C-alpha cells in the first residue's frame, strides 16, 4: 500500500472540512487497511455533493480498494474458461459499484458482507443471459446488449429501472422496437439445471448450472404495478401524493414525514393507510 503524506482537503459542508488521504495505488491497499479507510471514505460520500471531483475521488478509490472482492467472487466461476474471466470480472465490478452506491455506515454491517451478494448476483445474471437458446436475428441480439447498457445508465441517473418509453427516448428508437428487444431476451439459456459446469473450489462436489443460475428479477412485477398505478396516483390530491413520495420515493419513516408536515406519526399512518386502500381498491376495480 502506498499512501503519501499529501492529503486532499474536501469541503463536507460550508462549515466543516474533512481530509481524505491521497492513496497512490488503491488496488494495493491491504484488506485490513481497506476496512479502516473504507469507513472514512464512505462517511465522506454521505456529505459530498454527487458529481464533484472530490466525490468521484472518494467513490473511485472505494471501487479500486475493493475490486479484490470481485476477483474473490469470480474464482468460483473460473471453470467456464479463461476467455470469459475478463467479462466475469467486469460484470462483477458492476455489482461492486451498486453495493458502494447503496451502502450506508448506519447499517452496522461489514461492507464485504454487504457487497458480495451484489457481486455474485451480477455474475449469476451474466451467466443466465450469456447463451442464446433459440435462433434470434443478430439485430435483436445486438439490441439486447444496447438495451442492457441503456438500462444501467438510466438506472444510475434516475435511481430506478427505466420504463419502455424512457429507454426508447434515450436510444432514439420506437417503443415497439424496445419491446421487441426485451421479448427477444427470452431466447436466452434453455437447458437442464442439473448440467455440470465444474467443481467447487471448497470441496470435490460438482457444481451444476442450477447452483449459479440467477433468479427472476422480482422488480419486474413491481414495474408492471407502477405502470398501472401511475394514472391512479394522478387522481390523488397534492397531500396524498406528497406523502406517498416521501414514504416510498424518499424512503422516509412515518415519524420523519410527520415532522416534515407538522402532524403526528399516527396521523401519517392513518393518511397513508387510507391512500393505499384507495389505490388498492381502484386497482382491483380495473382488474
TrEMBL record:
CDD domains reported for this sequence: Sigma70_r4 (cd06171)
InterPro entries on file: RNA_pol_sigma-70_dom (IPR014284), RNA_pol_sigma-B/F/G (IPR014322), RNA_pol_sigma70 (IPR000943), RNA_pol_sigma70_r2 (IPR007627), RNA_pol_sigma70_r3 (IPR007624), RNA_pol_sigma70_r4 (IPR007630)
The entry's keywords: DNA-binding, Sigma factor, Transcription, Transcription regulation
Keyword Transcription among UniProt keywords: yes
Residues in RNA polymerase sigma-70 domain copies: 87-100
Endpoints of the signal sequence: none
Keyword DNA-binding part of the UniProt annotation: yes
Highest rank taxon of the organism: Bacteria
Identification of the protein by name: RNA polymerase sigma factor SigF
